[in-house]
Amino acid sequence: MELKEEYDYLRKQIETNISLIHKTTNILYIGVTAILAWAIESNTHLICLLSFGIIIPTYCMVRDYQMGLLKIGAYLSVFYNDYHWEKRLHKMQNKNQIKRPQMSYVYPYIFTTIMSNILFYILQLKNNDLNASGIIQYSIFSVISLSFIIWVSLGKKNDCIKSEYIKEWKKILLEENKLKKHCKIKVMSKEKGCCRHVQIRK
Fold first, then answer.
1. In the predicted model, what is the mean pLDDT of the chain?
2. Are 191 and 136 in contact (CB under 8 A)?
3. Based on the number of CB atoms within 10 Å of its own CB, is 47 exposed (0-12), middle (13-18) or buried (19 or more)?
4. How far apart are the first and last CA of the chain?
5. Global pTM?
6. Is 28 in contact with 112 (CB distance < 8 Å)?
7. Is 153:65 a contact under the CB 8 Å cutoff?
8. Which tens digit of pLDDT belongs to each residue from 80-96?
9. CA distance 23 to 111
10. 38 and 19 in contact (C-beta within 8 Å)?
11. Category of 43 on φ-ψ map: left (φ > 0), alpha (ψ -120 to 50) or beta
12. What is the pLDDT of residues 24-74, one digit of tens each?
């Protein structure tokens, strides 16, 4: 595959991943909204627990797509010297004076988790279900919610991950250049040996 063809393929892969992130986030909103509406309609707070059956899997999917984006972006910034956009973008994002939400893709998951937690508590209040059993239920739900929020919030920032990928790609590039240089020297040595052999025969 030629460099231009590979570059175009990788750019399309980036666009595909971005589209998948948007679609998965839409699935999150639709699914959690449906579950919370069901909980309100049936007046059952325990149904809110089902929201994690959508929140956690979709988050893992989006995280995987996001890692793919960072990996490809790092690859392009290292191996494509003729296309400077990725390099310049990475340098700009690393400047301390430029503030931007690096983990913005996790906000929908934090938001839906908080909303599920709030509705769980409101339905408990509405049903006067704040006895010992109800308090234990809410405590468990709150621990799950808080643990998930902490987990997604403490994840590595995008620019840190991309910098790590860039370091690894640079190592691979260096290894490939060394191998090419070694192969070139080997070929040149063989050619010189052949020339000497021809001269001796003459």
1. 82
2. no
3. buried
4. 44
5. 0.77
6. yes
7. no
8. 766 556 656 656 555 55
9. 17
10. no
11. left
12. 999 999 999 999 999 999 999 999 999 999 999 999 999 999 999 989 988
Go through 86-118 and write b for each residue having 16 or more CB atoms within 10 A of its CB, e for each that does not.
Answer: bbeebeeeeeeeeeeebeebbebbbebbeebbe
Q: Tokens 């959690």 sit at which residue?
A: 32
For tokens 């929020």, what's the residue? 149
* CB neighbour list of residue 117: distance below 8 Å, 6 or more residues apart: 48, 141, 142, 145
Rounded Cα distance between 84 and 46, Å, is 52
**What angle (nearest 5°) sits at the alpha carbon of residue 139, between those of residues 136 and 140?**
90
Which residue bears the tokens 């508590």? Answer: 121
Structure-block tokens of residue 98: 């430029």
Q: Rounded distance, CA 187 to CA 80, Å?
A: 27
List the structure tokens of 104: 């913005």
Question: Whose CA is closest to 108, among 179, 23, 4, 170?
Answer: 23
* Contact in structure between 148 and 55 (CB atoms under 8 Å): yes
CA 100, CA 117: separation in Å to the nearest integer?
A: 28
User: What sign has the CA pseudo-torsion 89, 94, 97, 102?
Assistant: positive
